[in-house]
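Protein in question kept in full:
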Amino acid sequence: MSLPEIFKNYLKIQKVSEVTVKNYLVDVNNFLDWLKQKTGIKYQVANKAIFSLFTQETIQEYKNDQTKQKTPSSTLNRRLSALRKFGQFGQSQGWLIENPANQIGNINGKQEIPEKKQNQEGIEIIKEFEADLKKEKVSPVTIKNYISDLRHFFSWILKKSVV
């Protein structure tokens, strides 16, 4: 049985309405397709191991990409709700200790700025580093993890410089 099918069964056991089940499956598949595009990893192959990529950083990056693509706030908020439920499902199966999607808030009617005040120098350094890693044929998952770590580091530096 595929991961979305197991998730669908979980939702039905939770007595979620048919419309919500349909929407959540579409939304989770949207996320899994986005994840495949970013990492090259197919959930069909990874199955439950895909939850190792279901992190707060990955979900935030997904949210940022959706914001940049001007996804309507109501659609994005529904997708984030679906991911929260997907994380809850992962926890119920013992595949996640904590649900990282719970740490990602909805957006208001106005599009929010993806990385708050991340400075332009940091963004350029990250882009150059990512391009260099791709030239060296580093795996997409490793690149994603390195980029995530750098974003956290630059965010930390910005917080320290404000204090």
